[in-house]
Structures are given as C-alpha cells and as structure tokens.
What we know:
By secondary structure, this protein is an alpha/beta fold. It is built from seven helices and 18 strands. It folds into two domains: about 25-315, Rossmann fold (3-Layer(aba) Sandwich), CATH 3.40.50; about 365-439, Immunoglobulin-like (Sandwich), CATH 2.60.40. The strands form four sheets. It has an eight-stranded mixed β-sheet with strand order 1-2-4-3-5-6-8-11, sandwiched between helices.
Amino acid sequence: MKKILLSIALIFSTYSLVTAQCGSRYDINMFSVTGTTGIVYGQNVSASSSTNQTTLTLDFYQPTGDVATARPLIIWAHAGSFIGGSSSDQDVDTLCYRFVRKGYACASINYRLGVTSYDSLGFIYALIRSVQDMKAAVRFFYKDRSTSNTYKIDTNNIFIGGSSAGALMVLHYAFLKRSCQLTQYVSQHTLDSLGGLSGYSGNQCYSEKIKGVINLCGTLGTYGWIEAGDIPFCSMHGTNDNTINYNRGNVLPTFPFHILVADGSRMLYKQAQTVGVQNNFYTWNGADHIPYAGTTATEMAYMDTTVNFVKDYLLQRMGYTCTLSMPANAAYGTANLYTYTNCSGNIQSPCSVTGIANHEFQPVKKIYPNPSNNTIQIDFNQNETHYLQLSDISGRVVKTISSGASTVFIQKENITEGIYFLKVENTKGQTSTFKILFN
C-alpha cells in the first residue's frame, strides 16, 4: 500500500514539475544544464560560391534529468554583422544556460556567414541566407518531433530570438512574409536564385510556425511589414545604440560605407501599437549595443534584466498569468511613421514544391528529397503526360524529360551543384515551375 501511495505521489510530483509555471518551472531556476554541440540541422550553398556547401550545425541545451516529454524551445541566433560570430558566443551561450535552468530547451545555431559585396545588396543577401537557415532549424525540430522525438520539443511553443544580426534574422523571419516586399532591393529572379524566403537549407516541407520572437537590439527593413494579426513579439533596445539605431537610422553607421536605413525597435513598437500587435518593449536608457554581452558587473546586471523581461514575455505567450519580474518601461522619444503601403503578394510556403508563381495548374504532389545529392523523385497528382524541363539560374536547359508515369526520377548525373528551376508542362500547354537544389 505504501509503495502504491509513493508511486501516486511521484506521479503527481512529476506532473507538477512539468506543468507548474509561476514560482516554479519556466519562472525560477530549477535545473542544471546538459549541452550537446555540433548537431547537424542542414546544409546549403555558401555565401562565396554556389558550388561549395556549408554544413549547418546547432548546439542543443536541455535541463539535466528532465522528465518532461514536450518542452518549450528557444532557438537563439548570435550577433556578428553576418560576418563573424558562432553558436558559442557569450551573448547566446549565457541566454541558453539561463533559460534552460528554468526548464526550457534551447538551441544556438550557426548560420551562413559572409557578404559577397560590402554594400546594401551584399548584406541583404546575407540576411536572406540567415533567415533561410533559421527556418531550416525550426523545421528540424518539427521533423524530429514527428519522427524520432529525440529532443522532446513542444512544437506549439517554439520561440526564436537573437542579438543584433541575430535579431535582424528573427524579425525578418516573422515579418518578411512576401517576396514582393523585397523587390525594392532585389529582383524576383535574384530572390529565386537565392532560394526564396524559405530556402533549401534542409528539412523541406515541415512547418515553420513559431510562437513568438525575441528581438534584442534589432531592426526591420521597414516598420510597415508588421501587420494586424501578426505574431506578438518582445523587444529590448538601448537608446545610445551606435550600431543599430534605437529609432530609425543607418545600420552599422560606423562602417566606411552606407549599408541601409532601417527601422529600430522604437519604430516597431509604435507600429505594433498602431495595428494592434502585442509588443513587450523595454528601453535600456543610455545603453549602447548589446549591453548584456560580457562578464562585468554592469553587463551581468543587464543580462539579469534581459532574462527577466524575456521570461515574462514567454510565460505570457504560453498562457500563464504571473507577477511580472521586469515590467515594461516607457519608450524613449517619439517614432514618426512615414507613409508605407504593403504589397499584396502571396505569403510564402515552407514546402519546396510550391510554385514560383501562383498557378492554377498544380501538377506535382511531392518533390523529394530536395535538396538531393543524387536523385530527385517527382510524384504527380494526375496520370497524364508531362514534359519536364530543368534549367539553371542563367536559363540554360540542362535536362528534358517526357513521361506519362505518375512518378518521375531526375538523376543528377553530370549536373553541377546548385539551384535549378523545373518547368512542368502538360499536353494542354499549362505550366508550373518549381525550385530544386542538387548538392
């Protein structure tokens, strides 16, 4: 009888550990941390060459001895102006440890670094690549949950966050939703050649849905990309930030060349208020860029503020009502919203079989694996004759196939690594185009 009662008590104790929040799990420190480095979550062409592949890895941190089978996850992205930095940098490493001690699972990702030209376009291309890599990381955990469930992630509660360049990445992940929003910077053809907004960094066709965004000292191409109904986000920014403007201004103004003008956290907060999107906003009055990165007493105090404020936002997003550890303070100055009209293009899909245009003719059920090292299989929706034409990004046709089969295979053979466009046409002359990648 005592053994039965002890077992029941243990069950309820475990249940309390997993589900408690205010004053317990997700609110206070309860665990030590176990970390695993160098986990491969994808790969993609490097910034410098379409024929060189970059293997994408992440470091994963989880509570030691945790019995929970579905933990909320925060995926962090490091700073470094898209030129340097790594998953082990102090800014993200400390954030991982601090939140895992509260019961979260955390990942810190390496993403493709490097700019092909030191101008606006070079950094925009780097930003697009980083967003593609973060999307592959999110898809990695969705894929894991539906297969081996190695990491025990609650995919209903996946958050993404970053410092500086990492914050740019996560903001554009959430609010850059249509390819037409980039046409003031790059052409549709150029964006397609880069892999579109979702990219081909791995785990294609799994979900990219996230619960929230943590913006630490970041900026967005334009405030207008935040629209009614968008995902709530959390922002922290210093008023004396000389790298990314708190309000609106030049990105990396100390560089010897002009990058671009973008909207800082103050502008984003104003827009969120205007369109009714929740934005928990904290201003570090008098602080410069990433004030929490370091080991001095002042920097560690900023880290405490950061963790407490972000923690309150996470608990709120997960539906818990707790006493705030770090209430929001007043925004500094005013934000003047200039005139901006959003374009009305289609919101991008994470699935690699999505056509470049919104065609009524959708012949393909599935294309996989994509990317592929050798053979790509194409399953069709209808048993009819299809004409397939594979072209590289310059428009050169590298392969043609005609088949009435329900499944067609494209062999890599002598095709070089890179992005290709697959045009599918039926006997009625209807066409649809898809992006594929050979590694």
